[in-house]
Specification:
Strand order of the largest sheet: 4-1-7-6
CATH architecture of one domain: 2-Layer Sandwich
Distance between the termini: 71 Å
CATH class of one domain: Alpha Beta
Helix content: 25-40%
Number of helices: 10
Oligomer: single chain
Largest sheet: 4 strands, mixed
CATH superfamily of one domain: Bifunctional carbon monoxide dehydrogenase/acetyl-coa synthase(codh/acs), Chain M, domain 3
Strand content: 15-25%
Number of strands: 19
CATH topology of one domain: Bifunctional carbon monoxide dehydrogenase/acetyl-coa synthase(codh/acs), Chain M, domain 3
Length: 469
């Protein structure tokens, strides 16, 4: 008999990756429409946990008005003789996996940024109470992580209680992150990988190092090491570093080998500390995005909770579409907030000296880790809402990026006379170098123009297709 025989909907890995659109949603918890939401796991002593207890503080699912968004706190307390405090982040991240095992439920993100949807179909089938979801969690946790001997779960929907616990949760996350700081990538012989999000991004492999947290911000190197130890066949695994090919970009032979295998050959190389070339892939649960702004040759950072437009006129959701899915896209880099505190943060791209715009809420959280001479030179949404305003701010504040513009302009000016030097009128052989220029015509098709030993100056070029060709 299945351990989910009494559950009104299906439960299993087959439902992972299910996307629930708003029109098919019965209720939504968290997400952009709600300010306060969280999921938190705490390790307790054996006598502090009542095994199997499920508590709901506030209205249950069946008592909520449909087609609305609500605050939600998921607070799980676990105990066991082998359960250690360093496992909290690992257990917590499994909430994402187990929620997606439930037919008609979609879970994205983590920690203080959760986004959950319940479909109309599953509600109609009888999935109308957190008691049911709690039972599923408890059975999955105990089945897949048998070191958990006792587990009690509290669901909070009362907005005031969620807000109260939200502040407590933030302090717990910070304490957990602080424990992981200090260790350097060069000091360990192995990194860790995570494929927990492959149900949404099949080619994504998260590489977790001491100085590069998981994109979701929920798993440190210590968390990953503990997870791989207690669940060696689980989604978190050890990666032998191998040879360091490039210490600045962060390329390792061992990482390349594992990522190639785990991505089914789609991703061949990874540079851990840059947003260009072969950047680390992104799933969909990243806390923030580093995005390149070509007009200023610098990076903007935007987090999931930012509801306004970025200076390039695009919101987080649109940038996320360009970043997620397990792809390597130059200039779009999914990151965690904790990675922004790392000395390896965009190391190959110039680090914080290349960052020009960050939402004030995030800047406040990481300002103690930004070089002091840069803190007031980085614009926020209060300083610049357009690229032009951003340029003016950077010049007025003397951001280092301005010097970069000046040096680039000087280099271009120095190269210009050489480029414009007239060529002697000497006949060139047919074997001389040639340049091919693809020219698009309409939606599909095109011509290929080959220029041989030619220097062309034109204010305007017009190409017209001849009739019948």
């Amino acid at each position: 008999m299945s351990m989910f025989a009494d559950i009104p909907v299906g439960v299993g890995e087959v439902y992972s990756g299910e996307r629930i659109r708003w029109q098919d949603t019965y209720v939504e918890f968290g997400g952009l429409r709600v300010q306060y939401k969280f999921e938190l796991v705490k390790v307790r002593k054996m006598d502090e946990v009542v095994d199997g207890k499920i508590t709901i503080i506030g209205p249950d699912i069946k008592d909520l008005e449909p087609q609305k968004s609500y605050s939600l706190g998921i607070f799980i307390e676990v105990a066991g003789s082998q359960v250690e405090e360093e496992l909290e982040g690992v257990i917590e991240r499994r909430i994402h996996e187990y929620t997606n095992y439930i037919e008609g439920m979609m879970h994205l993100n983590q920690r203080y940024d959760i986004w959950i949807r319940l479909s109309k179909k599953s509600f109609e089938k009888g999935l109308n109470s957190f008691h049911i979801i709690g039972k599923i969690y408890q059975r999955l946790f105990k089945s897949e992580l048998p070191i958990i001997e006792k587990i009690q779960i509290t669901f909070i929907t009362d907005p005031e209680k969620v807000k109260e616990m939200y502040d407590y949760a933030l302090k717990e996350y910070e304490k957990r992150d602080a424990r992981a700081r200090g260790l350097k990538d060069e000091e360990v012989d192995a990194f860790y990988g995570c494929t927990l999000c492959q149900s949404f991004a099949p080619t994504h492999v998260c590489v977790i190092t001491p100085q590069r947290y998981s994109n979701c911000g929920a798993i440190s190197w210590f968390d990953a090491r503990a997870s791989a130890r207690i669940d060696p066949k689980g989604p978190v695994f050890r990666i032998e570093k191998g040879e360091c090919i490039d210490p600045v970009k962060g390329e390792y032979t061992g990482v390349n080998d594992v990522v190639k295998m785990k991505s089914g050959g789609e991703i061949q190389r990874v540079w851990l500390y840059t947003a260009f070339g072969y950047p680390h892939t992104s799933c969909g649960c990243f806390e923030g995005i580093a995005f390149y702004i070509p007009e200023v040759d610098g990076f903007g950072i935007v987090h999931r909770g930012f509801a306004e437009l970025t200076p390039i006129g695009v919101p987080f959701s649109k940038l996320a579409d360009s970043t997620a899915g397990g792809r390597q896209v130059d200039g779009f880099h999914g990151i965690s907030i904790e990675y922004m505190r790392s000395p390896k943060f965009l190391q190959a791209d110039g680090g914080w000296e290349r960052v020009v715009w960050v939402p004030s809420a995030v800047l406040e959280r990481v300002k103690d880790f930004i070089p002091k001479h840069l803190v007031d030179k980085i614009a926020t949404e209060k300083d610049a809402k357009t690229v032009e305003e951003l340029k003016n701010f950077l010049v007025a504040k003397g951001h280092p990026i301005v010097k970069r513009w000046e040096e680039k302009a000087k280099a271009e000016a120095a190269a210009k006379p050489v480029e414009e030097k007239a060529l002697p009128a000497v006949a060139a052989p047919e074997a001389a170098a040639e340049m091919a220029v693809p020219v698009s015509v309409g939606v599909v098709g095109g011509f290929r123009i080959i220029l041989k030993n030619a220097k062309i100056r034109a204010e305007r070029v017009k190409i017209v297709r001849e009739k019948g060709k």
